[in-house]
């Protein structure tokens, strides 16, 4: 019996170690320490600040911008930290806070800002608030105080390769000719007739769950207040989705897309990287994705940079809301920590944000280097890439639909999984709708 | 042992030797563990500066969380297959590589190497193999089994996970089994040969019973690693397609950090700990009973 005791104690401790280090997370992260967040130099004027970047595709551009910013402001050294790909910036930011070592600035998704509001700086007094585009700071304003710096406008829809479509329609393709589902199907048929595949559906849960399906929420009504009311009743469980015209219309379009999908045989096998490759090389004419995909498309570009967006139609009536509108919204927000950062660091961070908006070099970084569509009216440099230009064009013509950017944090993962099941024909529409309804009634 | 009558000098000597380790153990293990248990009684979301006590509400929710139990069931299935297959493969490798083959040390090193590669990297390498290399070969050679990605099908993705796990751990367990096989005394095997026992009889009646300690260690390690699997799961399938291969650790992580329900996630982690503790303790207890002396 004695031996048994010694052994059981050992076993328990080994397990404990595994559980605590694998799942605990509450105290185990203090060792990471790769930031210099708290390293403000108290004696001199030199200040060291850091930024957690969650837009992986602009990491090098940001590092470059940090160097340029340092040349302009020799006192301030800016260090860019990358959030690991595939995790949400919230996860990284909250672990950094838990370890007592948050960076000075963090780039978060819109919906995450509220959770941090007790720990971050009120940015309402900053000059750029007045220059931001309309409604840019609505979703990060709580009790009349704005906590988030709107970094980018991002939009998504069907990206088309103009070279492929020109060939399919015989002549120059005009995006305004596609206003209904039938128009779109017609276009798909034309592309297939020209010997190419019509489109690729990238099966990532975030693409389907955070971008495609939310078109059905945002498309409910042109009035955002009505949309919010719809979301509330969805949460309360009083909304009958199976009879919802917009959702069913969107799913009808999705059914149609499934028929023309290049990966129809194994719809879930694809990865993100396959999308830009087949679109850029002209193997397909259309890809459902957003303007952030430009750097990857550019690597495979065979259409001389001629790309643009088409809206995702939800019906056969050209005037229905959403059939001619592109979904777009301010997506990434930079917040400034006030808990662990010194006042000097906070000032330096504010200076960096102003530098982006008002200095020529900052604007150049934002628009030309990082290919971001700025959320500020005073920046007049046109978007640097064709996808950004296309989105800007839709916005300028008033043909934009506000994307759902404050969905609950696990929406993309859970509803995305349901959408994958539907895409794979492993579940029918009734199952999908039931799972969406269940998600909304169970969400906190 | 130093015999001291006074309690203070005695304690002082002990603290001198165990103090540093004890301190490290308390701060990185016991304190977070207890704090973690405390958090299971709160509704903390992982970031807020305040949280309220909610009593046993989270534990009630653990038992209502169907997905948690579903992924626990899946994990049990995964553990069952990996424990059996990893140990079988590892034992066969060990057995083959103690026969005095030419270059067997190179083979041993070769089979052990996958264990030195981190789970994340390993998962990514195999993701590439399953969704690109095998598909390419399958299409060219016309093998329907490989012509679509294994990772896109719930059943095949599950088996992909098991295959990668075997590849990862078989070499490690092999090393333990080799040590076990070498420690079987040659004299009794020789005596058995003289008595006319053939190879199979010797293996069954002498080698295997004498190797029970190795089996206990290996089965314990594979059990515990199987239950805690996260890295390979994350980088190979990400729980997909559509959450069909989401193991229980991944579910707990997502509860805590993605759904921002830290209290509930932590409560699920604790329940998982208790379940795994019971299972492994039973395994070690019954394993020990099978031990024999030469």
Automatic annotation (TrEMBL), chain B:
Instruction: Please classify the protein's predominant subcellular localization into one broad category.
Output: membrane
For membrane topology, the record states:
Multi-pass membrane protein
Which InterPro entries is this protein grouped with? Answer: ABC_transporter_permease, MetI-like, MetI-like_sf
TM segment ranges: 21-41, 78-97, 109-137, 157-182, 203-223, 269-286
Give UniProt keywords alphabetically: Cell membrane, Membrane, Transmembrane, Transmembrane helix, Transport
Family membership, please give it.
Belongs to the binding-protein-dependent transport system permease family.
Designated name of the protein: Sugar ABC transporter permease
UniProt organism field: Paenibacillus woosongensis
């Amino acid at each position: 019996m004695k031996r048994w005791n010694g052994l059981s104690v050992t076993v328990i401790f080994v397990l404990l170690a595994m559980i605590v280090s694998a799942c605990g997370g509450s105290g185990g992260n203090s060792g990471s320490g790769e930031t210099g967040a708290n390293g403000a130099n108290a004696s001199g004027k030199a200040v060291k600040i850091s930024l957690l970047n969650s837009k992986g595709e602009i990491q090098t551009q940001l590092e470059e911008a940090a160097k340029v910013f340092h040349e302009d402001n020799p006192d301030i050294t800016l260090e860019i930290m990358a959030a690991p790909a595939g995790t949400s910036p919230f996860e990284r930011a909250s672990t950094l806070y838990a370890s007592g070592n948050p960076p000075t600035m963090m780039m978060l998704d819109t919906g995450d800002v509220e959770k941090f509001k007790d720990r971050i700086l009120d940015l309402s007094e900053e000059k750029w608030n007045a220059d931001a585009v309309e409604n840019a700071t609505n979703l990060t304003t709580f009790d009349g105080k704005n906590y988030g710096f709107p970094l980018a406008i991002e939009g998504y829809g069907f990206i088309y390769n103009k070279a492929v479509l020109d060939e399919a329609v015989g002549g120059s393709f005009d995006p305004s000719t596609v206003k209904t589902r039938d128009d779109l199907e017609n276009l798909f048929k034309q592309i297939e007739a020209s010997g190419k595949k019509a489109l690729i559906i990238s099966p990532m849960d975030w693409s389907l769950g955070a971008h495609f399906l939310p078109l059905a929420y945002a498309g409910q009504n042109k009035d955002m207040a009505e949309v919010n009311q719809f979301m509330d009743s969805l949460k309360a469980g009083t909304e009958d989705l199976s009879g919802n015209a917009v959702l069913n219309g969107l799913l009808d379009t999705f059914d149609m897309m499934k028929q023309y999908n290049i990966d129809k045989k194994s719809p879930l096998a694809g990865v993100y990287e396959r999308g830009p490759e087949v679109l850029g090389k002209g193997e397909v004419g259309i890809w459902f994705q957003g303007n952030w995909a430009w750097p990857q498309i550019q690597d495979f570009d065979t259409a001389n940079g001629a790309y643009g967006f088409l809206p995702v139609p939800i019906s056969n009536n050209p005037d229905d809301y959403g059939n001619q509108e592109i979904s777009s919204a301010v997506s990434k927000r930079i917040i400034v920590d006030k808990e662990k950062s010194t006042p000097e660091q906070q000032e330096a961070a504010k200076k960096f944000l102003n530098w982006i908006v008002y200095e020529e070099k900052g604007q150049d970084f934002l628009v030309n280097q990082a290919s971001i569509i700025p959320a500020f009216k005073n920046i007049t440099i046109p978007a640097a890439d064709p996808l950004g230009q296309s989105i800007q064009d839709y916005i300028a013509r008033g043909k934009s639909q506000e994307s759902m950017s404050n969905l609950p944090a696990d929406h993309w993962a859970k509803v995305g999984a349901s959408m994958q099941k539907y895409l794979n024909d492993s579940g029918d529409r009734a199952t999908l709708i039931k799972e969406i309804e269940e998600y909304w009634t169970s969400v906190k | 042992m130093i015999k001291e009558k006074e309690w203070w000098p005695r304690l002082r000597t002990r603290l001198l030797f165990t103090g540093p380790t004890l301190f490290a153990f308390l701060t990185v293990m016991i304190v977070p563990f207890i704090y973690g248990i405390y958090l299971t009684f709160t509704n903390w979301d992982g970031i807020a500066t305040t949280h309220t006590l909610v009593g046993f509400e989270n534990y009630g929710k653990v038992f209502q969380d169907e997905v948690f139990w579903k992924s626990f069931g899946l994990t049990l299935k995964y553990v069952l297959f990996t424990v059996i297959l990893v140990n079988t493969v590892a034992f066969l490798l060990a057995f083959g590589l103690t026969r005095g083959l030419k270059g067997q040390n190179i083979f041993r090193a070769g089979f052990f190497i996958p264990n030195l590669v981190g789970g994340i990297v390993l998962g990514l390498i195999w993701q590439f193999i399953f969704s690109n290399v095998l598909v390419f070969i399958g299409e060219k050679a016309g093998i329907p089994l490989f012509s679509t990605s294994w990772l896109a099908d719930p059943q095949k993705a599950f088996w992909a996970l098991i295959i990668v796990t075997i590849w990862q751990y078989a070499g490690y367990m092999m090393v333990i089994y080799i040590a076990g096989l070498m420690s079987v005394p040659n004299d009794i095997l020789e005596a058995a040969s003289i008595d006319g026992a053939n190879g199979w009889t010797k293996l069954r009646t002498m080698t295997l019973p004498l190797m029970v300690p190795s089996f206990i260690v290996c089965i314990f390690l594979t059990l515990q690693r199987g239950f805690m699997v996260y890295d390979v799961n994350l980088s190979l399938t990400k729980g997909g397609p559509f959450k069909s291969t989401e193991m229980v650790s991944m579910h707990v992580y997502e509860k805590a950090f993605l759904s921002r329900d830290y209290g509930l996630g932590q409560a699920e982690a604790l329940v998982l700990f208790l379940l795994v503790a019971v299972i492994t303790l039973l395994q070690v207890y019954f394993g020990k009973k099978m031990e024999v002396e030469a």
